[in-house]
Design a protein that fits this description.
Layout lengths: L24 E6 L9 E11 L4 H8 L9 E5 L21 E11 L3 H14 L8 E10 L8 H18 L4 E10 L7 E7 L10 E12 L3 E11 L4 H10 L6 E8 L18 E11 L3 H16 L6 E10 L2 H5 L5 H19 L2 E8 L3 E6 L3 E4 L4 E5 L3 E14 L1
Parallel strand pairs: 6-8
Antiparallel strand pairs: 1-7, 2-4, 2-5, 3-4, 6-7, 8-17, 9-11, 9-12, 10-11, 13-17, 14-17, 15-16
């Protein structure tokens, strides 16, 4: 067992980036290959509830196990057999209409048995309190809570050793350390170092420490995105389709495309003989609504689905849950912490300099912070008129700032 924070040199397997010999320097990147031991388990929770049940009510029922709205990973609609029943007015929910809310629960690996017992107990008690909720769960994986600390001095030693191997191949020696670069925002576990070949002396301004500092803010998706498909006769226009949707109580849908279906091609789940099927147009729309109104929207679409089918206007509607999204307004509300990024860079630069036996000099350059949005993958499927599966997403705003310092002897 090795002391925490010190990574043996033999366990460092650097990735090599060959420098150009013409600039009399060699550049290598060193990083440890030891994988930390997972210490957390990840559970996926699914709560089935009536479309009339709000997200707040679902979260409230799970509050005892530490679930909040921030744990939401997605939602979906079960297959249409659940929705069997007479058509309802667009303002009301259809009897039996359900939504499945998906959450993620993270627990210590040492308490996996205790967590399973707690979830099993909640699974049994939820139906007994007449809440109309039912719970299912599964253990989906493990993860590391906190990455282990890395020793920058070991990284520098590993980088020099690898630089010397490359230099030897060219009949030269790896000399003075010219530059170092890494990222902040966690332990320094990857380092790119540039060494002089032989006795080359570089100007002072080429002795640098470059730090790319970053901070991320996780954004809870606040919008639900649904995909709608309206089938019409081949002679229908966009105005006709828009009017049909409006009459069914649907507004705010954005047209994303239209395509034709040849004669004799049966729509999914149609029992009509192929000879009776006429050419159709299929109009694709996207409807974005607040997550808090997801249940109301699904109820509205279910009612509209049946309303259009009974209207004899030649229109039919199908839809599925496409995913979750973060609104632009929420993204715009996040600002980059410029002073915090500079402070992070200063701290990391000082750590590297101490490990290398040098000092941090003045700042030579600053790259303007940028905000980059990122999101997890979305998987959606359609067995029928509503979605049957959704893996929700989380999004993050990542602010970065690159600071270059002069490296002093």
């Amino acid at each position: 067992m090795h002391r925490r924070g010190a990574i043996p040199l033999l366990l460092l397997a650097p990735v090599l980036l060959f420098g150009q010999l013409s600039d009399n320097a060699v550049t290598v990147t060193a990083s440890p290959t030891v994988s930390p031991t997972p210490d957390q388990v990840v559970f996926s929770l699914s709560v089935q509830a009536s479309v009339d049940t709000s997200l707040d009510a679902v979260v409230g029922a799970l509050a005892g196990i530490g679930i909040t709205a921030a744990n939401l990973t997605g939602f979906s609609s079960p297959p249409p057999a659940i929705f069997a029943g007479p058509a309802q007015p667009a303002s009301g929910s259809q009897p039996g209409a359900q939504l499945v809310w998906n959450f993620q629960l993270i627990a210590p690996l040492s308490k996996v048995n205790q967590t399973v017992a707690t979830l099993t107990s909640l699974q049994q008690t939820l139906p007994q309190n007449q809440s109309g909720l039912s719970l299912s769960f599964s253990l989906t994986g493990t993860q590391v809570a906190t990455p282990p600390a890395c020793n920058p001095a070991d990284l520098i030693s590993a980088a020099r050793a690898q630089a010397q191997i490359i230099a030897n191949a060219a009949g030269l020696n790896a000399g003075a350390l010219l530059a170092m670069s890494t990222q902040s925002g966690g332990p320094v576990c990857s380092l790119t170092a540039r060494f002089a070949l032989g006795l080359m002396f570089a100007p002072a301004d080429q002795h640098t420490i470059t730090i790319t500092a970053s901070r991320s803010t996780t954004l809870q998706p606040d919008q639900a995105v649904l995909a709608l498909t309206v089938s019409s006769t081949i002679t229908a226009t966009q105005d006709n389709v828009a009017a049909a949707l409006a009459q069914a109580g649907i507004s705010g849908a954005t047209l994303t495309g239209v395509n034709s279906t040849p004669a004799g091609v049966l729509p999914v789940f149609s029992s009509a003989p192929s000879s009776a099927v006429q050419p159709l147009l299929q109009w694709s729309f996207t409807l974005t609504v607040p997550v808090a109104k997801a249940g109301d929207t699904v109820a509205l679409l279910l009612a509209a689905e049946q309303s259009l089918a009974k209207s004899n206007g030649g229109f039919s509607l199908t839809f599925f849950v496409k995913g979750l999204a973060v609104s632009q307004a929420l993204r715009n509300s996040q600002t980059c912490p410029d002073p915090g990024l500079v402070s992070d860079a200063n701290t990391t630069a000082q750590t590297l300099a101490t490990a290398a036996g040098v000092s941090v000099g003045p700042i030579l350059s600053l790259a303007s912070p940028q905000t980059a949005a990122s999101a997890g993958a979305v998987l959606a499927g359609q067995f029928s008129s509503v979605s049957n599966f959704l893996l929700g997403i989380t999004a993050a705003n990542s602010c970065t700032l690159t600071v270059q310092y002069q490296m002093m002897p």
